[in-house]
Amino acid sequence: MSESDYNVDITKLFPEEHTRRTFAKVFDKNTIDLLHSLAGRGHFAQVEYPISTGKEAHVFRAVDHAGNFRAIKIYKIDTSDFRHMDEYLRFDRRFEHIKPERRSIVHAWTQKEFTSLLKLQKHAVNVPSPQVAKDNVLVMEFIGSKQGEAAPKLKDAHIGNISLFYEALVQNIAHMLEAKLIHGDLSDYNILVKDDMPVIIDVGQVIPTTHPNAKKFYERDLNNMLKVLHRHGLKELTFDDFYADIKKAKEGKK
Ligand SMILES: Nc1ncnc2c1ncn2[C@@H]1O[C@H](COP(=O)(O)OP(=O)(O)OP(=O)(O)O)[C@@H](O)[C@H]1O
Ligand SMILES: [Mg+2]
């Protein structure tokens, strides 16, 4: 798609030429129209630059008229692994009747990520506050500094006090269980670090704790995180300690 194919003036929405080109390479006219309509409703004023360009989604930093930053996650219709998405959507009764076609599945996935963020936020999990989701676009709180620098992924971050970080992570996972959800893809890619504390992101695939394989997914998440925590200095931590700490934190909340 070239820029001239869009029938709206996109330079206002995308002042940066490079961002405009990155966008035009991967997103269709529906997505640009949708961004225009969300901007028209005041959710943001300008899409500034891509923070991340992945296989499934691009995440852009945006800014509103008052100068507040936003993160906009836009799922790609063509390259998303929609079979994987479909399989996970079936865990959720709300999405049982989604049409088994690519576009509908990606839209449902975006909606699921939005509602999961809302639910997790309600249960005090530290997630980006969701603002709006429509079709393949999710607008949420920008996680980063006041100056607008995006927070690093745990994989790239240095943690000042790993014990405090661990405690916060345990609390976050306990809160997720309170919300009756398992992340399902917990890793040092899907945790951002802000003020030395974890922020959980990328929650499209969350799994209900009532799922028959919930235990397997949960243990996989904990094992992945255990390796990460070892790398960050908690070398003595065992799976059983980690499991018990979360259980204790969860019981403490009752
Ligand atoms: N709310 C946010 N604030 C700041 N940065 C964000 C936010 N959400 C996502 N990011 C950045 O974008 C990256 C990709 O986001 P996310 O993990 O949600 O997408 P993804 O589904 O993994 O995408 P893909 O599979 O295409 O890589 C994150 O690692 C993070 O660097
Ligand atoms: Mg991710």
Automatic annotation (TrEMBL):
EC number: 2.7.11.1
Transmembrane annotation, as ranges: none
Keyword line: ATP-binding, Kinase, Magnesium, Metal-binding, Nucleotide-binding, Serine/threonine-protein kinase, Transferase
Location of the Protein kinase domain: 45-254
GO MF term set: ATP binding; metal ion binding; protein serine/threonine kinase activity
One Pfam family, short name: RIO1
Record InterPro entries: Kinase-like_dom_sf, Prot_kinase_dom, RIO-type_Ser/Thr_kinase, RIO_dom, RIO_kinase
Catalyzed reactions per annotation: L-seryl-[protein] + ATP = O-phospho-L-seryl-[protein] + ADP + H(+); L-threonyl-[protein] + ATP = O-phospho-L-threonyl-[protein] + ADP + H(+)
Top-level taxonomic group: Archaea
Keyword set includes Nucleotide-binding: yes
Coiled coil: none
PANTHER family: SERINE/THREONINE-PROTEIN KINASE RIO1 (PTHR45723)
Family: Belongs to the protein kinase superfamily. RIO-type Ser/Thr kinase family.
Descriptive protein name: non-specific serine/threonine protein kinase
Provenance organism: Candidatus Iainarchaeum sp
